[in-house]
Q: What sequence folds into this?
């Protein structure tokens, strides 16, 4: 008799990038360094808003106030201090080499933002990745040649021309969510993983990177208001239970549950 699959709770927060100048003081040194590289005012506002949302969500789940939150970042490939942020519990400090002696036990989080929309995914126990894109962000010549496998490129041509803009965005979000969940980001070529076609449930079908073993992930598409595609993925073969939180202001959050997805190694 098969044992029931583990359930992975994932909370997804979606918000508009409404810039609040008072949020800048919440940023840590690493975030301020990244912020300084942004030149366009809208990029600046979106970055600050996204990291304010990060702190808001973590405060809801951990009780640690936004102003008291500290983060540890470690790249899974080079071990440099630029990986996904992980909230440090009070009193916990990295070692002299910058690593943590043990898992901090705080939620895993990941951010994505595009023009007009910020999405954050939070999972209490599983590494998580999320991506959101405008439909037209992938509507450029040569997208298939740089982002899709040969099988996916053929599948794209099976969609009606009027449907291809959305299909490209869905493909890209699914791939980005997987790569962010594993911590590899764009260090793994998008053409080295094949995901299911947009008219099928989200799943990782193939992985052909020669240097990195194929991961096991579970994933789902996310409904987002407006002309956006979005997807979330977590590490492991689990049943996703996704809760959507639409955030307009920190004290006005509407919540609904959506069906999760899965995929096999």
A:
């Amino acid at each position: 008799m098969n044992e029931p699959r583990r359930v992975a709770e994932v909370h997804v927060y979606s918000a508009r990038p409404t810039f609040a100048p008072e949020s800048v003081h919440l940023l840590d040194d690493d975030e301020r360094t990244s912020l300084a590289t942004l030149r366009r005012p809208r990029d600046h506002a979106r970055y600050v808003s996204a990291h304010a949302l990060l702190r808001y969500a973590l405060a809801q789940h951990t009780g640690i106030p936004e102003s008291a939150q500290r983060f540890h970042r470690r790249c899974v490939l080079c071990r440099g201090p630029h990986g996904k942020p992980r909230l440090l519990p009070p009193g916990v400090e990295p070692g002299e080499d910058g690593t943590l002696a043990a898992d901090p036990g705080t939620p895993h989080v990941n951010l994505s933002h595009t023009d007009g929309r910020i999405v954050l995914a939070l999972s209490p126990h599983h590494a998580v990745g999320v991506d959101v894109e405008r439909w037209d962000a992938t509507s450029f010549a040569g997208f298939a040649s740089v982002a899709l496998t040969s099988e996916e490129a053929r599948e794209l041509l099976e969609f009606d021309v009027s449907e291809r803009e959305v299909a490209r965005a869905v493909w890209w979000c699914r791939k980005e969510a997987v790569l962010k969940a594993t911590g590899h980001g764009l260090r793994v070529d998008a053409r080295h993983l094949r995901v299911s076609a947009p008219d099928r449930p989200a799943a990782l079908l193939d992985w052909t990177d020669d240097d990195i073993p194929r991961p096991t992930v579970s994933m789902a598409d996310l409904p987002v208001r407006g002309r956006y595609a979005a997807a979330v993925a977590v590490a492991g073969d689990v049943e996703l239970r996704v809760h959507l939180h639409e955030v307009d202001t920190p004290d006005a959050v509407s919540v609904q549950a959506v069906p999760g997805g899965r995929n096999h190694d």
Observations:
- The two ends are 20 Å apart (CA to CA).
